[in-house]
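Researcher: Sequence recovery benchmark, item below. Answer with residues only.
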């Protein structure tokens, strides 16, 4: 392997690490979802790995197509920028929908009391709307299906999201050296990106496990949705 490719591999590892840590959208959505759903660290890491791999594949495929179809770099950067805008606003939309769902669930979980009279005896009992308004035809898996849908939604958002430095800074220079160099540089970038995402999520989820906020537990989904919305806005508005 040529010295140029070795330098590019080192550059790829550095850029992947810094780019991932400076982009809160690479890990905060998973931390927020894990906290709101009481995921284990293992489940959070599996979800992160799955979405992170999808995140990488989109840009890699586009890069290889562009290189071997002799598409100009400017055109590829324009496509990546468009993908970035779509992914950012898709993340904002997902966050807003999840926030609204979380607020609705928080309202249903709110306990309150009602007075009743039975045979001259007046008493009251507490309940929540979540139990009061449940229906038999909804089925026990309806909530699980909504959560599964949310998982697929976040995966699609990550597939749409581009890896901005990969094509112009790494893939195009590596392609000028050799096919082996191109594959090596791309693999290093992909591996370091996913490993950094996993490390950030694992550290955050493990650190938050011991934090309990009893008065805020029923708002956990709404807080998670708001966090995801802010991540999307940080990309769409601030360009982080």
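Model:
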């Amino acid at each position: 392997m040529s010295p140029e490719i070795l330098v590019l591999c080192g550059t790829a590892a550095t850029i992947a690490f810094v780019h991932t840590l400076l982009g809160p959208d690479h890990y905060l959505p998973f931390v927020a979802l894990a906290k709101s759903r009481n995921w284990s660290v293992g489940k959070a890491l599996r979800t992160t790995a799955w979405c992170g791999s999808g995140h990488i594949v989109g840009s890699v495929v586009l890069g290889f197509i562009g290189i071997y179809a002799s598409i100009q770099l400017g055109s590829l950067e324009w496509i990546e920028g468009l993908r970035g805008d779509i992914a950012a606003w898709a993340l904002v939309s997902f966050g807003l929908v999840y926030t609204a769902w979380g607020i609705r669930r928080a309202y249903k979980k709110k306990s309150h009391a009602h007075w009743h009279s039975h045979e001259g005896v007046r008493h009251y009992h507490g309940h929540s709307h979540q139990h009061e308004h449940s229906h038999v035809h909804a089925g026990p898996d309806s909530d699980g299906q909504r959560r599964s849908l949310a998982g697929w939604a976040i995966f699609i958002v990550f597939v749409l999201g581009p890896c901005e430095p990969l094509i112009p800074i790494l893939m195009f220079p590596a392609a000028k050296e050799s096919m082996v160099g191109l594959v090596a540089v791309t693999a290093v970038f992909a591996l370091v990106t996913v490993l950094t995402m996993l490390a950030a999520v694992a550290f955050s989820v493990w650190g938050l496990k011991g934090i309990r906020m009893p008065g805020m537990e029923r708002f956990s989904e709404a807080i998670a949705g708001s966090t995801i919305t802010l991540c999307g806005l940080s990309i769409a508005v601030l360009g982080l």
